[in-house]
Specification:
With 297 residues, this protein is of the alpha+beta class. Helix content is 49%, strand content 18%. The chain has ten helices and twelve strands.
Length: 297
């Protein structure tokens, strides 16, 4: 999309100490794609598109969708954007963010996957007044900081604002999936969604597939088969994913000792905890913490 006004963030590279402008772009309006992009275009960023007024028709992959007033659409990398057609009275904005910006959001990727699976035929949702106001507010805050920020701590603020708007968006999608999961999802999709919810509630204490299968009243074999078919990962891999990411968070963001983290995560002893973490992270808990502290932010 060709913007009337465009703002680029300058991202600090930790190694070269130089800035580049490939991190985040906000497009305030869409008049013509020719000056900015050559379509069709293979998308390599996370795109968030909000329609403020009018309509916007978008052709991507082998489908076409329409955004209307107060609707939102998210496209992840990999989609082929073929064309777009704004109405004469269209107003809206698009935020394009490098996927690297969401490294700290990895624990939420399961929810993103659930939402993508549910909305794979049409990724557009209609926002209520409060949700719409939040999107515009986040956009305004990002633009304000982007226009004035060049320092390292400004970058961290912008990073969190960018995470915030996408978390806010994920909340909108996730809420609707939760309401519709029993009525509209296939049995497999519903089972996967409920499995993710059970993991989020119990992963700090429970790490066995059989525990979650019992909670969902299915056999471990059936649960594993459905989860693998829908997500491409086994039920055990999803459980480990949550556990390992929580351990990493505790190692980096708290002063808890290795022993205390082991107890907090309900491992039988510190030795087993260390072996478990190293088998999944490639390094010991202590080495992971030391490396993270040495790398700073």
């Amino acid at each position: 999309m060709n913007p009337i006004s465009r703002t680029d963030i300058m991202q600090l590279n930790a190694e070269t100490k130089e800035w580049n402008n490939s991190y985040l772009t906000i497009f305030d309006s869409a008049e013509s794609v020719d000056a900015e992009f050559s379509l069709p275009l293979k998308n390599h960023t996370v795109l968030l598109i909000v329609c403020i007024n009018g309509t916007l028709d978008i052709d991507y992959d082998m489908t076409s969708v329409r955004l209307v007033k107060q609707s939102i659409m998210v496209l992840l990398p990999g989609h082929l954007v073929r064309n777009y057609f704004p109405s004469a009275d269209f107003k809206g904005f698009m935020i394009s963010s490098a996927i690297s910006n969401f490294a700290n959001m990895m624990p939420l990727m399961s929810r993103i996957l659930v939402c993508l699976n549910h909305y794979k035929e049409n990724p557009i949702i209609q926002l209520d007044e409060e949700e719409f106001a939040n999107q515009v507010l986040f956009r305004d805050l990002l633009q304000h900081k982007l226009a004035r920020s060049k320092e390292h701590f400004d970058f961290l603020v912008i990073n969190k604002l960018c995470e915030g708007i996408f978390c806010e968006t994920l909340n909108c999608y996730s809420k609707r999936v939760h309401y519709a999961v029993n009525a509209q999802c296939s049995r497999g999709d519903a089972l996967f969604y409920k499995f993710i919810l059970e993991i989020e509630n119990g992963f700090k204490e429970q790490r066995s597939v059989s525990y979650y299968a019992d909670k969902l009243c299915v056999s471990p074999k059936h649960l594993s088969s459905v989860v693998k078919d829908i997500s491409g990962h086994t039920a055990g891999e999803w459980i480990d994913y949550y556990v390992v990411n929580e351990i990493k968070r505790l190692l980096v963001s708290t002063d808890l000792s290795i022993q205390e983290i082991s107890c907090k995560m309900h491992f039988v002893n510190q030795s087993f905890f260390g072996k478990y973490f190293k088998s999944h992270a490639g390094v010991s808990p202590r080495d992971f913490r030391n490396k993270s502290l040495m790398s700073g932010f």
